[in-house]
Amino acid sequence: MSEEPVVSPSQYAHWRETRLGRVTERVEMQLVFELAGSLAGKRVLDVGTGDGSYALEAAGRGADVTGLDSDPAMLGAARARARAGGASLALQEGRAEALPFADVSFDVVLAITVLCFVPDPLAAVKEAARVLVPGGKLVVGELARFSVWAARRRVRAWLGAQTWRHAHFWSRRELVRLAESAGLEAEVVRGAVHFPPLGLVAQALAPIDAQLSRWRAHGAAFLALRARKATVPS
After folding, report:
1. For residues 146 and 179, what is the distance between their CA atoms, to the nearest angstrom?
2. How many C-beta neighbours within 10 Å does residue 135 have?
3. Cβ neighbours for 215, distance < 8 A, ≥ 6 positions apart
4. How far is residue 6's CA from residue 186's CA, in Å, rounded to a whole number?
5. Contact yes or no for 226/35 (Cβ under 8 A)
6. Interval 114-163: pLDDT, tens
7. What totals of helices (H) and strands (E) does the chain contain, helices first?
8. 84-108, pLDDT tens digit by residue?
9. Residue-range definition of the domain harbouring residue 135
10. Residue 161 forms part of a structural domain
11. Element (H, E) at 211
């Protein structure tokens, strides 16, 4: 993530307490783990783990999980959540652009809403590729450019919201190009969160969101890319 935290642990916690936050996180997580596939027995790195939501979910699916974040406060929150839930996570401070891990250390790398804040996204994806085993998967989840949510975030940035002032919103084509520039094979990009940022509407439309994702419906607020590292160097 970026050098200065853009979101605090308390903001994450408050977001999940709202109807919109609960529904949105569930829909996004469903897509990410559908693309990730079975994680039982896999070594998983969650880059920009925040307070550990995706790391904890991966651990619950049988993975051996390492979570990395640049913010000690976030790591503390993730550690507390893991302890409260009886989950085992390895948590480490570090940056996406310079991962403190050896080559070919992980079977799956997750990077969820990280690249939107990282100063050098290509460096971060190259690092993810470096630590993946041959045939390993990178699953990126990012904020989409062409959505009502993105328009709302841009307005908030213009009004002074620090979180969104320097955020980058992504298109499908950009994510594919990014993965390929890092030497990975982009396999699929799918969208989620086709509903507007309204709690009751989100709750009503969430059951059909997965179908809209498969239809490649326009207006998704969240994009997920799965890319794979070649089994044989090119």
Report:
1. 20
2. 11
3. none
4. 28
5. yes
6. 999 999 999 999 999 999 999 999 999 999 999 999 998 888 888 777 77
7. 9, 7
8. 999 999 999 999 999 999 999 999 9
9. 9-228
10. yes
11. helix 199-214
